[in-house]
Amino acid sequence: MKVICSKENLLEGINIVQKAVSAKTTLPILEGILIEAGENIKLTSNDLEIGIECCVDADVREKGSIVLNARMFGEIIRRFPDAEVMIEVKENNNVVIECENSMFEIRGLDAEGFPALPTVEKNDGIKISQKKLKDMIRQTIFAVSMDENRPMLTGSLFEYKDGRFTIVSIDGYRLAMRCLDPEEEKDTENAERKLIIPGKTLNEIAKILQPVDDDLYIYAAGNQILFDMGNCIMTSRLLEGEYLNYMSIFPKDHETKIRVNTKELLSCFERASLVITSEERRYPVTLDISDDKMVITANTEAGNVREEMKVDMDGKKLEISFYHKFFIEALRVIDNEMIDVYFTTSLGPCTIKPLQGNDFAYLILPIRR
Amino acid sequence: MKVICSKENLLEGINIVQKAVSAKTTLPILEGILIEAGENIKLTSNDLEIGIECCVDADVREKGSIVLNARMFGEIIRRFPDAEVMIEVKENNNVVIECENSMFEIRGLDAEGFPALPTVEKNDGIKISQKKLKDMIRQTIFAVSMDENRPMLTGSLFEYKDGRFTIVSIDGYRLAMRCLDPEEEKDTENAERKLIIPGKTLNEIAKILQPVDDDLYIYAAGNQILFDMGNCIMTSRLLEGEYLNYMSIFPKDHETKIRVNTKELLSCFERASLVITSEERRYPVTLDISDDKMVITANTEAGNVREEMKVDMDGKKLEISFYHKFFIEALRVIDNEMIDVYFTTSLGPCTIKPLQGNDFAYLILPIRR
Question: B228-244, pLDDT tens digit by residue?
């Protein structure tokens, strides 16, 4: 194998595929990046859960393939000047990498031993802009459960129905839901689809996605999903089974509703949480709502805090307590300036929604004081 | 005690004094910041090695003093909106902190128990610009020794002689020296002075110093040093004893001299170091200098690297090996575009100097291959 390509393009490809390189493994080949030179060069990584493949424009002088340690390969290319890089496989898998007056010789591994990515047929894909998917993942992933006893909840539901695309995460105490309406993406030819994507996969794909309007396609077959971003694809296993019927969790009506400024409420919760030190993490933050006023208090060994906010209020007055982290994490990802918060009783769930439409909903269970 | 001051000013003061708050201590009061309200308010921290005092403009309604946990106090003020903050000490050292619609009540500690900073008379000070001192520390501190068996070398020498101010660090294998000539700072009335400042103190003062031309004054008395930055001072113990006669370490002449581009040489060393993994950290990088060309090589189990550089050369050809980190750390702090490197023999020290003048000198011992 002998290829010549620009440092910039090569590094961009390496930075993407590095996200699926195994950090800890007993198989050295999984710490590597597979380089295949055909028409162009293709970089592949595979930690046996997630796989990434990326094409890089190159001048291929001699076809072939080799596996190089991802860390070493990445560092070498990163440190090169912005110029043409030449990679050549010599005898015994020795690889020479040259750029201007620098020359490296490192040991590669035989490409034969590299595990192939699962094949997923590109049929009946879901189309969505990279930026929108990146945002939707960021706005829901924090509510994915860490509890391996309920494996289904360690992933997020991707639901596609009548052109409406929804992501839902539930950890047993809260729910995060983000939707894209068919008004935004008119593509209703697809059949209904429900996929459960592992949280780890979502974290990695969110890092790869760029905040641009370019579309990507999501395909699924068997227990595999494929994200197709054009010259770069990512595959992952899916979680198998039936996800919770999340729509049944939302309360049908409410007793109290407030309209508040998102950032202002977030600041109040963040300050209230300062007296809740890590040893006291289950101390509640209490909301006391009456007469268009909300008083937020927390009282612990470390101190007492009291915050007062003006709110637009509908319905009954209410006193209710929450675990501060659940509110803070939801409020941090909401981009809307104002939100409506719907309460049932002091023991029932509350729901955060936009003033209009149903782009998102965050449901949080209260704490019994 | 009851004071009112702006959040911005108070936070600036807290951020400075927090650098001398004990991280790990069995004395809770050392995790605190002493607040004293007189004409203005004065914040003090003291970890018994370093002490910092900072004045903050305030409207003092009632004089007094209290100690507040630095982390909690800092977090509360940081999270407040940009507005007036009121701090009031109530009964039993309970402290109320208010800002707009937020109110905290936390427990303080009696100011009586807070250890006073050592007093250092402000006589015969050394004057230097904050920016210049900050730069000089950054350019020498990496060569301070970590070896507690030679306590003197765990600090840097501050030498003041005939108006020339010099900082020197030596760790037994290398030396870093940075000077300010009397041409730059004409203040020759001071007597000769030699102070050895602990590395930890230098790290902290470098963080506090701003990259501005404002002057600070350095005073010393007994085994204490005082950095006076106007509305903020820092004290520290000094290391006691006689520092090495560093001038005697520099070779009197050289056999080989090269003139090179600093960044280019740094890049070559950084790339060469890529094959020197942590397990192989004592593998050398070898320089082969002849015919206005320098070939830089490193060969380890991880791979081989070869770099070639054009250099302006004077004197004999030479092959010499170094521990890569010593060159990299020196080259990273040199702001000059070009440098001269003087070599004696392949077993003798080399010295990096500016093309003109004697603003700096970095001496590095080679490795015997």
Answer: 999 999 999 999 999 99
Q: Provide the CA B22 distance to its chain's centre, in angstroms.
A: 18
* Chain B: residue whose CA lies nearest to A101: B308
Q: Which domains does chain B have, with CATH numbers?
A: 2-113 (3.10.150.10), 126-247 (3.10.150.10), 250-364 (3.10.150.10)
Contact A306 B106 (CB under 8 A): no
Among A74, A204, A180, which residue's Cα sits nearest to residue A126?
A: A180
Q: Which chain B residues touch A if contact means CB-CB below 8 Å?
A: 72, 75-76, 79-81, 101-107, 267-268, 270-271, 274-275, 302-309
Amino acid of residue B48? L
Cβ A285 vs Cβ A327: under 8 Å:
yes
Please provide the DSSP assignment of B34-67 as one string.
Answer: EEEESSSEEEEEE-SSEEEEEEE--EEEE-EEEE
Q: Chain A interface, mutation test: which of B305, B310, B311, B332, most A Cβ atoms within 10 Å?
A: B305
Overall average pLDDT of the B175-185 stretch: 79
Each residue's pLDDT tens digit in chain A (369 positions)? 999 999 999 999 999 999 999 888 889 999 999 999 999 999 999 999 999 999 999 999 999 999 999 999 999 999 999 999 999 999 999 999 999 999 999 999 999 999 999 999 998 889 999 999 999 999 999 999 999 999 999 999 999 988 899 999 999 999 999 999 765 445 556 678 999 999 999 999 999 999 999 999 999 999 999 999 999 999 999 999 999 999 999 999 999 999 999 999 999 999 999 999 876 667 999 999 999 999 999 999 889 999 999 999 999 999 999 999 999 999 999 999 999 999 999 999 999 999 999 999 999 999 987
**CA separation, residue B189 to residues B132, B164, B216, B217 (Å):** 20, 11, 17, 14
Question: What does the CA dihedral A119, A122, A125, A130 come to, rounded to 10 degrees?
Answer: 70
**For residue A107, what is the enclosing H or E element?**
strand A102-107
Residues 6+ apart with CB under 8 A from A49: A198, A200, A201, A236, A237
Answer yes or no: are the C-beta atoms of A46 and A53 closer than 8 Å: no
Query: Element (H or E) spanning A205, and its range?
Result: helix A199-208
Q: Nearest Cβ partner of B274 from A79, A306, A307?
A: A79
pTM attached to this predicted model: 0.90
Measure the CA–CA gap between B330 and B351, rounded to whole angstroms: 11
Question: DSSP labels for A335-353?
Answer: --SEEEEEE--TTS-EEEE
Q: Are B136 and B167 in contact (CB under 8 A)?
A: yes
B104, A304: Cβ pair inside 8 Å? yes
